Amino acid sequence: MSNSGGAAHLSGAALALSLALSGAATGRDGGDVATATPIKHLVVIFQENNSFDHYFATYPKALNPPGEPEFRAADDTPTINGLSPELIANNPNSTKPFRLDRSQALLNCDNNNGYGAEQLAFDHGLMDKFPEATSSPATAAAGNATACPTGVVMGYYDGNTVTALWNYAQHFAMSDNFYDTEFGVTAMGHFNLIAGQTHQSNVVNLMKTGASTFVVRNGSVIANLDAGPDSCRAAPVKGQPAASVTMTGPNVGDLINGFNAARPARRDITWGWFYGNFDLVPGPTGTPQCDPAYDDHHVPFQYYMSTANPNHALPLSAQAVGHSVDPSSGKLDPANHQYSLTTFWKAAQAGNLPAVSFLKAPEPDNGHPQTSDPLSEQSFLVDTINRLQQLPEWREMAIVITYDDSDGWYDHVMGPILNQSNDPLFDSICGGAQVSLPTAAFNDRCGYGMRMPMLVISPFAKRNYVDHAVTDTSSILRFIEDNWLGGMRIDDATRPAPMTGQTSFDKIAGSIEGMFDFDRHSNLSPLLLDGTTGQVIRDRDRSGR
Questions:
Q1: What is the reported pTM?
Q2: Using alpha carbons only, how large is the chain's radius of gyration in Å?
Q3: Within 13 Å, how many C-alpha atoms sit on residue 405's CB side?
């Protein structure tokens, strides 16, 4: 890490302290904060690498073979835009879509989900080149993708494998029209979740020869690269040199923390990112070291000097979690809103559940092909959601489950292209001589990209409901802005250059509020599932118990 980067971090910390001490820390949890909706606690579970058709292609109809957890849909289940028997039988791809059995949950491969590869799979909207484009051998443009056998990308699971997700859809709300904000990989999906954009203006530290062509184009991140401020970035952990970047625009944490000249800080809004592999672990001699499974691509706030916890410091106390300043001591909290999942549960048990929480599963449980699988992911999701539903805050909570990208898995739906780009090297869906970018827009941010699963679990979620409104990853960012920040957008965060907005897509994102009914508490009673089978073990709304 350069000396200039260290100076920038000190400057960011000093600014955070100045803002935090400019008003008294309240010590209150999110339940005391005024919100635009009855939702006082948002928990975003951000999983890895799955398309909508890969998990919901035939919903709500499962094959139900002997020996697998059975799934039977309610009679009033609405239809979705899924794979019909006709489209499976007469699919335009060179390999037809096929069901993956529960015994095939662990696939020892990783598709090509590169920014350019996914566009090529769309084949100008024909949606017929997935085996050739996203199951093709990995290239530098594909980030850290590992090649899968041709045709595997057309596989999908049903309710006998991703049973818990199908049951959550039965009892709460899901979308069948939710998209990755842009085509591309993990880092891009995470940036769009917290900032609505992937453009940056800081110099990239290129430790791979010629890497700039493949990780950053025209100032936009288009592939996975490491977090410049993070002392545990992939190079120290995995022993491989990599390109790193420091993002320079504002993120939602900056908005909440008050990095905006036009509006006062909202220090009463607590927030944090909680990642399973974030904490340091004992080394061979007992000295703390980075978790070998840590992946900085999964902690987007680590890319920003203002919100990074570069040395993975622990919070001063459970009551300090979510705050910039420890309410009890008045000291600047060194964790800076970046924590482990262990810390999340300690804070929740201490009655200090943040208003806005982003949860990231540890590597074996995040659903990423090759390093995880749907059954391990299901166990994590069910355990997490069962626990959340039994907290006192459940009455005013919304849980969102979605994914950072599609991994290149087949999906038959092409969403609207709202973010134009014209890079002849990578853009095939976007671009062309007829395309001119809007004022202040940037190339290499083509989208919307792939369609992905998205579910809302909440007492206020519409029951057994499918939302068809067009939404994307930055719609979650928009909900945070609308609910807690009076509709403030990322580009409203006026700060000295280069910390000004970079044309965030939150301002054009569709709203997820159609998935709620705020006049009713129809899902107040917990829906508890079995983590192994994904089947219902208690639904008091139906059993009466």
A1: 0.91
A2: 22
A3: 33
